[in-house]
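ok trying this again, last paste got cut off
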Amino acid sequence: MAAAAFGIGIVVGLTGMGGGALMTPALVLLFGVQPLAAVSSDLVAAAVMKPVGSFVHLRRGTVNVSLVTWLCVGSVPTAFAGVLVARSFGDGEAVQQAIQKALGLALMIAVAGLVIRAYTHLVERAADRDRQGPLPPPSRPEVRTRRAATVAVGAVGGLIVGMTSVGSGSLIIVALMALYPTLKANQLVGTDLVQAVPLVFSAAFGHLLFGDFDLALTLALIVGSVPGAWIGAHLSSRAPGGLIRSALSFVLLASALKLLGVDTVTTGSILLATLVIAPPLWMLIRRRHGFAALGRVSEPAGSTG
């Protein structure tokens, strides 16, 4: 478990995503941990791991403090409430199945978010290339905080995180992309990582009180994920973000299908079709925007959503 957490921690450090979206499914599918116990232990471990990446972004000044504040207004109370909602489903098999299905749906949303982010980044790079000339590209306009909408995003995201442990990175960052399209990529990741710290602390506290917390399991996750996240954060400036996003999307899709109860044959067929269709389709999209070579557009993974 510590070794698996180490690898996932590196992915989190590289991309700013994938903590709960990878850790909880790995515990459920690979190690046979009950879903509620996996969610509880993952959240407590994330409360230790998240500040690692957050400190780096705070030091670099890539955090929009105003957005963090209003996101937390919505997310912190609902993250705690999400634990109570999960428990209200009942004890035993019923709650385990409910958590597992909710987790699968959350992962499917996360996959869609990664695909959307990859496409929007491609469009942004094409636009930047077209603007190049005697004058530098115009700077992005200042981000103006939309308080009510931001609080609503935090509230919905916090509720999902409290129930499933997924969303503090993957889901909320997708919502921020839609709500603030002018937010720079590094600001997007930095803002999301910092707002995730109080969010995860709130959800973790709720699971300590009402969840199915396992100390030994949590310690194994912390031992692996914290150094992994630290290494990933330092490698992020050199790793190709597109490659990491592609691998992460594939793993999330496989995990989501299994958590939703899709049989092995169907899951394998879907994944095989994805491997066959997705690469040439993506190359066609790149050619449409003027990028012929697969490796011409890349960005540090730490600056992606």
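PB: full thing came through this time. The two ends are 26 Å apart (CA to CA).
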